[in-house]
Design a protein that fits this description.
Layout: H1 2-16, H2 21-28, E1 32-36, E2 40-45, H3 48-57, H4 59-70, E3 75-80, E4 91-94, H5 150-161, E5 170-173, H6 180-194, E6 200-204, H7 205-217, H8 221-229, E7 233-237, H9 246-261, E8 265-270, H10 282-288, E9 292-295, H11 301-315, H12 323-332
InterPro entries: AAA+_ATPase, Chromosome_initiator_DnaA, Chromosome_initiator_DnaA-like, DnaA_dom, DnaA_N_dom, DnaA_N_sf, P-loop_NTPase
Keywords: ATP-binding, Cytoplasm, DNA replication, DNA-binding, Lipid-binding, Nucleotide-binding
Protein name: AAA+ ATPase domain-containing protein
Length: 338
């Protein structure tokens, strides 16, 4: 047993230096040495989920580490501890992989899982009278900050604190489900709370188009223009929806100019940067780029785990979700935060 302990402690130290703190805590910290001989090192883990995670995602890491530490091509046997599982006899024996692991390039998310939504955040549609309709939960306080979104968050916060004075317009682009609508509505919620005299209007591009069509049909263009132009802060979601719609772009061009000339703030979101929105008028493209264009990237596993924890606290009515389950979701669903 002493040999197994010494061997595994050396392996554990090496593994810990090659992975993040979150991965170490959620995957490897609960492993315990059982036995070691000339051919096999046996290690136990708390449950089959962790066993399978090591087998599926960290095979090369653990086996090459064992080979490096022991100077031998040992076979690593991982078993589930009998006092912590319903299937104690289940075990897996992993053949040692060839020593090709490079710790400088190791990435736990190399094997991508299929794109699937995590948890869905419901966004209310604008009210019929054109007033702002924000989700009260989409605030800066509830936004989980990580390396992938830190700059976009800081820019949105700066705009909310001093609307019309910096980054005008602010253009946030990201793939679906990465938090751009959250930041957009967080700006609105902050301004409404801290500057109650200011008029704030949130609208999606699709709703903007539908209202425009209805205004033309019902000969109410004047009311339509007042609804969108007489605002201190205009928040427009999914601006890429205006792609290829010349009449809509013409109307939004004048709306944009009217608000900026009056000292108002404009914040836009899109699934791509302005230069990648084809059939967008050059005069609109140049205006979208005249402030600040910022990108939200896909979050790393630590940020995804933090988001899941916050979501579980908010949405599960006190029901605790085990960390292993949250980590499994965070590790396997890597693209869409919703």
């Amino acid at each position: 047993m002493a040999d197994a302990t010494v061997l595994w402690e050396a392996c554990a130290t090496a593994i810990q230096s090659k992975v993040s703190d979150v991965i170490w805590q959620m995957t490897f910290s609960g492993a315990k040495p059982i036995t070691a001989d000339d051919q096999t090192l046996t290690v136990s883990v708390p449950n089959s989920l962790i066993r399978d995670r090591i087998n599926d995602r960290y095979h090369d890491l653990v086996h090459n580490t064992v080979a490096e530490v022991s100077d031998d091509q040992l076979t690593l046997k991982i078993i589930v501890r009998q006092d912590e599982t319903d299937d104690p006899d289940e075990l897996v024996i992993l053949p040692t992989a060839s020593p090709t692991f490079d710790p400088t390039t190791y990435d736990s998310t190399t094997e991508k899982a299929p794109k699937q939504p995590l948890l869905t955040t419901t966004i209310q549609t604008p009210t019929e009278n054109g007033g702002p309709s924000f989700s009260g939960r989409l605030t800066f306080e509830d936004f989980v900050i990580g390396s992938s979104n830190r700059f976009a968050h800081a820019a949105a916060q700066a705009v909310a604190e001093k609307p019309g004075q910096s980054y005008n317009p602010l253009f946030i682009y990201a793939e679906a489900g990465l938090g751009k609508t959250h930041l957009l509505q967080a700006v609105g919620n902050y301004v409404l709370t801290n500057y109650p005299a200011k008029k704030v209007h949130y609208v999606s591009s699709e709703t903007f188009m539908n209202r425009f069509v209805e205004a033309i049909r019902n000969k109410k263009l004047s009311e339509f223009k007042d609804l969108h132009r007489r605002n201190d802060v205009l928040l427009v979601d999914d601006i890429q929806f205006m792609e290829g719609k010349e009449g809509l772009q013409e109307e939004f061009f004048h709306t944009f100019n009217s608000i900026q000339q009056d000292g108002g703030q404009i914040v836009l979101t899109s699934d791509r940067p302005p230069d990648d929105i084809s059939t967008l008028e050059d005069r609109l493209r140049s205006r979208f780029k005249m402030g600040l264009v910022t990108h939200i990237q896909s979050p790393d596993v630590e940020t995804r785990l933090a988001i899941l924890r916050k979501k579980s606290e908010q949405d599960m009515s006190g029901v605790a979700i085990p960390d292993d389950v949250l980590f499994f979701i965070a590790e396997n669903i890597t693209e869409n935060i919703r």
